[in-house]
Amino acid sequence: MASHSDTLVVFFGATAGANGGKLGSDEREIILLVWQIVDLHEKKVGKLQRRLVKPDSLELTDQSKEETGLSVEELYKAEPLDKVLQQFQQSVSAELKALGRSSYTLCVDGPLIIRQALHPEASKKNLVLPECFYSFVDVRKEFHKCCPNAGQVQDLTLHSMLEYVCIPELPLSEQVMGLKEVRCMVQLSLHILAEPYSNIEFSVSKTEPVDSETVIRARGLPWQSSDQDISRFFKGLNIAKGGVALCLNAQGRRNGEALVRFINQEHRDLALERHKHHMGSRYIEVSIRITQQPLRTSNEVAQFLSKENQVIIRMRGLPFTASPQDVLTFLGADSPVTDASDGLLFVKYPDGRPTGDAFVLFSCEEYALNALKKHKQILGKRYIELFRSTAAEVQQVLNRYMSTPLISTLPSTSMVPMPVLATPPYLATGSTRDCVRLRGLPYTAAIEDILEFMGEHTIDIKPHGVHMVLNQQGRPSGDAFIQMRSADRAFMVAQKCHKKMMKDRYVEVFQCSTEEMSFVLMGGTLNRSGLSPPPCKLPCLAPPAYAAFPSPAMLSEAALYQPPLLATPRTPQPPHSPHPTPTLAYYPPQHHPAQLYMNMNMNYTAYYPSPPVSPSTMSYFASPPGSVALAAQQPHPQGHVASPMMPQHGALVRMQGLPYNAGVKDILSFFQGYQLQPDAVLLLYNFSGQRSGEALITFPSEESARRAVAERANHPLSGLPVRLLVCCD
């Protein structure tokens, strides 16, 4: 029989933790090595060698103690790994010399002892392994060549292989861990060498072609880690040439993630077993990188939501490896899903990684209730949470995890007012105040609790008109929106249910518009100071010249009671209006697409663009509710209510470096002698609803504005020097 070497060294090892199929998965150290030489030409075996290894941490799991029969006292007297490896080399070299052989190859029962235990531990302890540990033959693969009908390689065990070729098992007196496994491998090796398998060749595995399903993602890497550090982390596994790619963030810096390609799926699967192994003091998350997952489109979501009269259930906490069939099996025959797997919608990150959330459609209430009974039952190793859901929640959750919105937010008209942003594709929008906002809900409140809270007004709710608002973690935020059949009904609910108790909390109820509700459900942040838009919808505008157009209509009395969440322009007043209002600045049509666009790739963090000096690009939001009401109550020279959105006619001066507690009175005192009115001061707020340290001041003329800048620039306000800029340059 031909062979690549003269001798086999049958090799076995055990660790202080998991052994068998999970060997090396828990990073425990090697505590036992056993080997025996097999002469391939003479078909003879050498002396059986068994060595205990002293680990750095003298701790054994109960399972390891039971399987190996070793105690801490025995290991304490043993030699460390480097010494035992030296003994291995010396012993094998001496026997080879006595046999007159020149080379040998390791033979193991599966690759785990070499790839998952020995190489990683040697790397951590800075040990240089002998050359023989870089190539080996797997007795399972060799047996599969001889007996392909015995089963798949991954399903073979020493017991099943011996049974298949009718070799009797060792007597109980010889079934000591390590000795038993090595003797079984020796018997199988000699059987393979015998007829009728003499034409079978023991061969060392060569490099296999790289396929497209061998990429994993490593997360949580130290910022300073290099591709060499990653290769060292996966020591013992074959990474494809150039197969380590360090990921960068938007600023071009390493973000603690890397993509690693292995030579085949076997090595990728072994790499996945190193999930939460440590690199230094940090554990590294290892997961499958899905490379061929198509990006979710609005058509896919629309198709899911287009099925009529369906009950939607949200599943949370799914294993990342869960398949549609796993979910269908979990739900069972008593809660069949509409259209089987087509009635499932898995929520995924932009790169295709699962989030653990999914939405499920049921054709009737009975099936949905059966599914809800499985709340907190186990799927895999995780308990699954199930909740009632709505179409709006589906869109809200998907928008949170997607890098781009479900539909394009590019304006279709030639002129778009600054604050107007796109709304969800499946919610009708408008300025009619036919919705109510509930604030202060108990975090455990469900839709049923809200319906009970509404009482007799429940009959006035539109179908599927209850929408829960979730926070960034997908948990209830304490807010909800309800669509009513008319603005009058919404007003009645707000009057009768305001500060009514739900469980142990009182709930505030305000009337609002569908427009404002839709904006929040797209991912905007709701707080007491107003509304911050979803980051993927923030307008990023170039600084062209601007022109003046009529302002939004005056705020109604109802709006003053509950200021709009977003100051959205309404239909402009006709020129002959008896109450001329001050103007707002808008951008005129642009002929170059680069001058007006929506940023589609922003991450979900507060972002405040640095605006040009044009006042039309500052303060996308109205001031907080208190200041809106205050400004609305100020008398205007012409006798009508002043708009709180932007300053009045005249030259604008921008103030920078204001103390964050500076108010309108402080600014008027700063410009004492310039005859300014309170409505000439506009404090600017950032996207978090907090003061930005800037303000816009309207002066009667450009001359007075320039004089104020010349005289007051860099003068202190509450101890801080204030910078002044004329915005009409």
TrEMBL record:
Q: Where in the cell is it found?
A: Nucleus
What InterPro entries has UniProt attached to this entry? Answer: ESRP, Nucleotide-bd_a/b_plait_sf, RBD_domain_sf, RNaseH-like_sf, RNaseH_sf, RRM_dom
What is the protein's known function?
mRNA splicing factor that regulates the formation of epithelial cell-specific isoforms. Specifically regulates the expression of FGFR2-IIIb, an epithelial cell-specific isoform of fgfr2. Acts by directly binding specific sequences in mRNAs. Binds the GU-rich sequence motifs in the ISE/ISS-3, a cis-element regulatory region present in the mRNA of fgfr2.
Q: What does the record give as the organism's lineage? A: Eukaryota, Metazoa, Chordata, Craniata, Vertebrata
Highest taxon above the source species: Eukaryota
Q: Which UniProt keywords apply?
A: mRNA processing, mRNA splicing, Nucleus, Repeat, RNA-binding
What are the GO BP annotations of this UniProt entry?
A: cranial skeletal system development; mRNA processing; RNA splicing
Gene Ontology terms: cellular component = nucleus
Listed name of the protein: Epithelial splicing regulatory protein 2
Q: Which family does it belong to?
A: Belongs to the ESRP family.
Question: What range(s) does the RRM domain occupy?
Answer: 215-287, 312-387, 435-510, 652-725
Species name: Oncorhynchus mykiss
Q: Name one GO molecular function term.
A: RNA binding
